[in-house]
Write a structure and sequence with these properties.
The protein has a five-stranded parallel sheet with strand order 8-7-9-10-11, sandwiched between helices. A four-stranded mixed sheet has the order 3-4-6-5. A two-stranded antiparallel sheet has the order 1-2. The chain has ten helices and eleven strands. Helix 1 packs antiparallel against helix 2, helix 4 crosses helix 5 and helix 6 crosses helix 10. It has two domains: about 80 residues, Translation Initiation Factor IF3 (2-Layer Sandwich); about 140 residues, 3-Layer(aba) Sandwich (Rossmann fold). The C terminus is likely disordered. It is of the alpha/beta class and about 280 residues long. The chain is globular and about 65 Å long.
Length: about 280
């Protein structure tokens, strides 16, 4: 409501554009029902939307927060949704006339007609196995919500190394700015990929595994100990964090969207010099 009040005063001529901009920058948080504070200025401040983490929250609160974000900003993001969360989110979204896009256990609630500002960046998302898809889909949700292109290739693990080569060649021909590689078990795939490509790689350890290395600890340590340079690592199952980091990297590589036009890239094999 504070944002709307500022805009109303701007339209009424009570504030100049500079004064309105100053007030909006000072509006960092909006209190919602005394239970949570939504960071409505995060997109302007950081270029990243707020994501409602459903774990340990009631379905009603998660739906209310996500729908509020969608109404105010055009889209609301939520992660770690259970079946109960899904039912309530879909119910409240339908009542508000909002659309729901599903990304595994995560969701984007979108106001009709809303589209994020295109930034020109590209992010490839790879998974070692199908068990890693939930975390990878979280990353893809954040990337697409920020107006970047995402391309996902799944089930490329090192247990069958032949499965990796062709999809990796294809995704690199697509010319991504950064890769997110999700893996559980031994977590070898991100280090392997980082040793083969020229772009930054973000390792996303997943809580899939057996025994002493289970719950993602083995995958996390493998990625942290990798000898492949250029490999960055987020915490276990942190698909949102991986997507956010990839968004910031790809946005800068693409020239920051509206700040500068993305230069035309020479495709590999065209005879023109590469990057």
């Amino acid at each position: 409501m504070v944002v709307r009040e500022v805009l109303g005063r701007l339209l009424a001529g009570e504030l100049s554009v500079e004064e309105a901009e100053g007030e909006l920058r000072r509006v960092q948080l909006e209190e919602l029902g005394g239970r949570a504070r939504l960071d409505l200025n995060r997109v302007d401040r950081r270029g990243l939307p707020e994501v409602v983490m459903a774990a340990a929250k009631t379905p009603a609160d998660v739906a209310r927060l996500t729908v509020a974000l969608a109404r105010e900003q055009g889209q609301g993001l939520a992660s770690r949704l259970t079946d109960e969360h899904w039912q309530e989110l879909e119910s409240q979204s339908a009542s508000a006339g909002l659309a729901v896009l599903r990304y595994g256990n995560a969701a984007r609630v979108i106001r009709p007609g809303f589209r994020p500002r295109p930034r020109g960046g590209r992010v490839g998302v790879l998974t070692a196995g199908s068990s890693d898809l939930a975390a990878a889909e979280e990353a893809r949700m954040v990337i697409e919500a920020c107006g970047l292109e995402a391309r996902l290739e799944a089930d490329l693990g090192v247990a069958g190394l032949h499965r990796l080569i062709s999809p990796l060649v294809e995704i690199m021909a697509w010319d991504p700015d950064v890769l997110v590689v999700a893996a559980g078990m031994d977590g070898v795939l991100p280090g392997l990929v980082a040793g083969l490509v020229e772009v930054p790689v973000i390792g996303l350890p997943v809580s899939v595994g057996y025994g002493a290395g289970g719950e993602g600890h083995g995958a996390l340590l493998t990625m942290l100990q990798s000898c492949s340079t250029g490999l960055l690592v987020v915490n276990i199952d942190n698909g949102v964090g991986a997507g956010a980091a990839a968004t910031l990297i790809a946005s800068r590589a693409a020239g920051g969207g509206s700040r500068r036009q993305r230069p035309t890239r020479a495709r590999r094999g065209s005879g023109a010099p590469g990057r």
